[in-house]
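User: Can you recover a sequence for this backbone? Please restate the input before giving your answer.

Assistant: Of course. Working from this structure:
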């Protein structure tokens, strides 16, 4: 009998997990690696509901599972030693569990990596741990930056003013910490609004959150785009000129445009950014470079409004190249290798947030294999 390996957290075990195990077990005897309590705390920034011993007990009780064990490693590749020892024929993941690092390891070991869609068994509703956690719990959005990133810092916009563009996302999955999804700002927001954003003007909420996160006297000021992307729904651009808070905002709630973005933006998890990464150790912040960043953001905005995918992709990529020209530490050889694997299948790419790892955001005319879709937060949702 062939061996099949899967790995995950499996906290709050539900029918979606069982359906996943059932489908994976069709390829052979199923072995399940479980993330340790320490690994989950590192990646998710929270404690599990059930301990690793409880999760192991429950997973072993599922009839489709041949054997289960707690992975000995850490990080998103915590299962590597187990995979090398087990030597399965197949490694099975869901769409949001795919990563280039997993593909590279499987290629090295001669293991076939299979990516499954989240399809519930007949007659059962779709389930995910994130959705269950959000039911009567925290539904605060995340955000991704599309163009103009870094111009929300005065030491950048003082050289040339311009727009930053953010997109507010529904928490359809639990995005990892240190991956460019504004999780630190979202964690700060939880301290003010533990469950959901209140019925208040979004711009005002963003200002409250920005001031809460950046107390007077703070040596490092988080950019305003994080608070804005979390608190202001839909597509938003914000204009900076030598100050931390933007001078003006423009928002788009048009359903056709937001749906268009959902059809053409995809994300791939690489790995969490290193804790000690210093993005400011080497910078080339000049008027010429910042102007290029600002011009790219302007072109990206206009292309989105016209739903011109090729012009949007060109501006999207130019914005990212402007960022990395000013902050070279955003990209390293490992990140570049991951980008190279997707370049032929996408029109454009960038790293979420400050880079150094995290999520790779892709612009494409068609779905990208191994990449997950996004869900934009609409104006009347999340409250």
């Amino acid at each position: 009998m062939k061996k099949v390996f899967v790995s995950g957290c499996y906290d709050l075990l539900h029918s979606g997990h069982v359906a996943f195990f059932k489908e994976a077990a069709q390829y052979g005897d199923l072995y399940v690696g479980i993330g340790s309590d320490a690994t989950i705390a590192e990646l998710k920034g929270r404690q599990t509901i059930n301990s690793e011993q409880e999760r192991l007990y429950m997973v072993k009780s599922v009839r489709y599972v041949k054997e289960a064990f707690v992975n000995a490693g850490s990080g998103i590749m915590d299962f590597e030693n187990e995979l090398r020892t087990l030597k399965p024929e197949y490694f099975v993941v869901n769409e949001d569990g795919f990563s280039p690092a997993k593909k590279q390891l499987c290629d090295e070991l001669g293991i076939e990596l299979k990516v499954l869609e989240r399809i519930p068994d007949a007659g059962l509703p779709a389930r995910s741990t994130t959705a269950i956690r959000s039911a009567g719990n925290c539904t605060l959005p995340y955000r991704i930056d599309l163009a103009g990133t870094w111009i929300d810092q005065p030491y950048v916009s003082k050289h040339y003013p311009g727009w930053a563009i953010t997109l507010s996302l529904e928490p359809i999955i639990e995005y990892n910490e240190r991956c460019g999804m504004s999780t630190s700002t979202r964690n700060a927001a939880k301290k003010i609004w533990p469950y959901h954003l209140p019925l208040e003007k979004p711009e005002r909420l963003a200002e409250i959150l920005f001031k809460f996160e950046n107390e007077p006297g703070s040596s490092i000021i988080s950019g305003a785009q994080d608070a804005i992307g979390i608190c202001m729904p839909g597509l938003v651009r914000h204009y900076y000129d030598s100050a931390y808070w933007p001078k003006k905002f423009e928002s788009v709630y048009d359903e056709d445009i937001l749906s268009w973005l959902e059809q053409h933006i995809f994300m791939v998890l690489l790995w969490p950014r290193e804790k000690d990464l210093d993005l400011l150790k080497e910078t080339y912040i000049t008027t010429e470079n910042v102007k290029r960043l600002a011009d790219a953001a302007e072109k990206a905005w206009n292309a989105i409004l016209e739903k011109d995918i090729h012009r949007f992709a060109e501006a999207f990529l130019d914005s990212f190249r402007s960022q990395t020209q000013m902050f070279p530490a955003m990209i390293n050889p490992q990140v570049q290798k991951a980008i190279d694997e997707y370049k032929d299948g996408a029109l454009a790419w960038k790293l979420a947030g400050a880079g150094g790892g995290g999520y790779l955001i892709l612009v494409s005319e068609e779905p990208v294999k191994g990449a997950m879709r996004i869900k934009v937060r609409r104006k009347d949702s999340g409250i």
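That completes the design. Residues 3-134 form a domain with the Rossmann fold fold (CATH 3.40.50.620).
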